[in-house]
Automatic annotation (TrEMBL):
Protein name, as recorded: DNA ligase (ATP)
Catalyses which reaction(s): ATP + (deoxyribonucleotide)n-3'-hydroxyl + 5'-phospho-(deoxyribonucleotide)m = (deoxyribonucleotide)n+m + AMP + diphosphate
Keyword Membrane: no
Annotated organism of origin: Gracilibacillus orientalis
Location of the ATP-dependent DNA ligase family profile domain: 105-196
Entry keywords, A to Z: ATP-binding, DNA damage, DNA recombination, DNA repair, DNA-binding, DNA-directed DNA polymerase, Exonuclease, Hydrolase, Ligase, Manganese, Metal-binding, Multifunctional enzyme, Nuclease, Nucleotide-binding, Nucleotidyltransferase, Transferase
């Protein structure tokens, strides 16, 4: 029976040349044993998980011919449900592991992935004693380029490179592996080191169970104390003695094992998450004698969980940018969607629409680098002699958001390129009352584009329309305009009562405007997952094509609903952005 090699937890990563790095995925450690006769998934405790994750087994059987020369095969990895390539949903994989019924339904709705990060056997050859570098090369020769229910965990040579990935995606952490290390089966080894990507949140100590050493932590929400969760790990003996003395001097005994005290002691806790009165993997960080108990509140907990870049000084977080939506709410949204939003912004000139005092107040466009911008905001010379802004990384995204940037518009081509990266059809009905016409047009364009060999993706505009994105290669703006114009005219000729290419609004009537003229050098489109300056705080949201039907309502997609939607369904634009 396979027994996993275990990493040792450390606070800092080694940076010597003999180490390489992999993302630590938040899922279930698992061994995949694949032979000519069967495929088995084994948990780290020896439980057979094969029946619980039939999508992995089915995929292996379907692709067995491609791996035949490598069988029998034993892979070490993690069973995950992915949100991004590096962020995974532990709650969903945990729920899947406990299912007794409806397993096939869930496996199709939100399939799991086996991320392989090591190989122990190939073609009946035991390779545990080979170095990790050799094993990884063998794993690459088998899995590189493989996409589906099994894939290989990437290798990072530089600590800074993987640190940036983990920061943006809020991954669980990093595992550093010694290049020349053999596989120490069933042992915890110092040749594998794990570094957790802890969030740090504040809490108020209110209860202490002397029998099991658990501290109950609370925080303020709407002026009332709420339970944050419990913590016992990380306190040194002297710190425990200090708490012991304090509780006995100022506290009150609740029962034979538990004491309580009025809100007075604050501390920082390292954790992976805090939700529903439970702190996940809590570890004491430090006492906070510099703050008051009221400083431990919903806002400071949300900030800690968001892990905002320390390089960005946040300000006036209580200000409303949308009705009943504070700047902190908005920044937490940007932080969550950053892995999905940044690929659509990176290496493109940015046009920002700023609402410093919210959607009901003055707004303005910003394309050029302001003189007060920090050094990390990247810029590039524009055609007008000014420096055009770009949004290249997380700290830039959060900085723009902190300055009231609510709408992110980007051109169709990247910097230093004259040809577009994509075609975008902008379908603009006269109002939401005619949104069904946009749905009809989107379906027709999808069919026409697929007939010509393209793969269309669709998103809401965040207002009243739909936008169809098509990734392209080696096409000029003139070529894309010819294609788009021809497509638009076919639609207008087939149904002139509902479609038009008339640019003047007053001449459109109740017809949907198919905008192909906007697809040109220097023109822009709203970026995927950007908010729009609406009452509802709506979002330009990528959709699955089966959602483009008569029940679709673009007002459903807001900063309140989109993160949960991505978590539950994934991102339809993974191949585009």
């Amino acid at each position: 029976m396979w027994k996993p090699m275990l990493p040792t937890l450390v606070n800092e990563a080694p940076s010597e040349n003999e180490w390489i790095y992999q993302v630590k995925y938040d899922g279930y450690r698992c061994g995949l044993h694949w032979t000519d006769q069967e495929v088995k998934l084994w948990s780290r405790n020896g439980h057979d998980l094969s029946a619980t994750f039939p999508e992995i087994i089915s995929w292996c059987k379907q692709h067995a011919s491609s791996f035949q020369t490598h069988l029998p095969l034993l892979l070490d990895g993690e069973l995950v449900i992915t949100i991004t390539d590096y962020r995974t949903d532990f709650e969903q994989i945990q729920m899947r592991s406990r299912l007794k019924t409806y397993i096939n339904k869930y496996s199709q709705k939100r399939p799991a992935t086996f991320v392989a990060f090591d190989i122990l056997q190939s073609a009946a050859q035991n390779i545990r004693k080979k170095s990790f570098s050799e094993r990884d090369q063998m794993l690459s020769s088998i899995l590189d380029g493989v996409m589906g229910r099994i894939r290989k965990a990437p290798i990072f040579e530089k600590w800074q490179s993987i640190r940036e990935v983990v920061d943006v995606h809020q991954a669980e952490g990093v595992v550093a592996k010694q290049k020349n290390a053999a596989y120490a089966e069933g042992k915890r080894s110092k040749t594998w080191l794990k570094i957790k990507n802890y969030r740090t949140i504040p809490g108020i100590v209110t209860n202490w169970n002397m029998e099991n050493d658990y501290l109950t932590l609370q925080y303020y929400q709407d002026d009332a104390l709420r339970i944050l969760g419990k913590c016992k790990n990380g306190l040194e003996r002297q710190e425990k003695e200090t708490l012991n003395t304090f509780f006995k001097r100022y506290g009150q005994k609740v029962n034979g094992t538990t004491w309580k005290v009025e809100p007075s002691i604050c501390m920082d806790i390292n954790c992976l998450n805090a939700k529903d009165q439970e702190i996940r993997e809590p570890v004491f960080n430090q006492f906070r004698f510099d703050i008051e108990p009221t400083d431990c509140n919903q806002h400071t907990v949300d900030q800690g969980l968001a892990q905002f870049p320390s390089s960005v000084r946040l300000s006036r977080l209580e200000k409303e940018l949308f009705p009943a939506v504070t700047k902190l709410d908005y920044l937490c949204y940007l932080r969550w969607v950053a892995p999905f939003m940044l690929p659509g912004l990176k290496d493109r000139r940015l046009t920002l629409i700023r609402y410093p005092d919210g959607v009901h107040e003055h707004s303005f466009y910003q394309k050029h680098l302001p003189d007060y911008a920090p050094s990390f905001i990247r810029a590039i010379p524009g055609d007008d002699g000014e420096m055009d802004i770009r949004c290249q990384d997380l700290q830039s995204l959060i900085w723009f958001g902190n300055h009231g940037g609510l709408e992110f518009h980007v051109p169709f081509n990247k910097i230093n390129k004259t040809d577009p990266e994509e075609i975008v059809f902008d379908l603009d009905p006269p109002s939401l009352d005619q949104f069904s016409i946009a749905v009809h047009a989107a379906r027709l364009i999808k069919e026409m584009m697929e007939h010509q060999g393209f793969t269309p993706f669709v998103k809401t505009s965040g207002r009243t329309g739909l936008q169809i994105h098509i990734l392209i290669h080696h096409m000029t703006y003139n070529e894309t305009r010819t294609l788009m114009e021809a497509t638009a005219k076919v639609l207008v000729e087939s149904d002139p009562d509902h479609f038009t290419i008339e640019r003047l609004k007053k001449n459109r009537g109740n017809r949907l405007y198919i905008d192909y003229v906007q697809h040109a050098p220097g023109k822009t489109i709203i970026a995927p997952y950007s908010t729009r300056a609406t009452e509802e705080a709506t979002v330009a949201t990528p959709l699955f094509w089966n959602e483009v039907n008569e029940t679709l309502d673009p007002r459903m997609f807001t900063i309140h609903t989109v993160p949960t939607r991505i978590k539950e369904k994934g991102c339809p634009f993974n191949l585009v952005i």
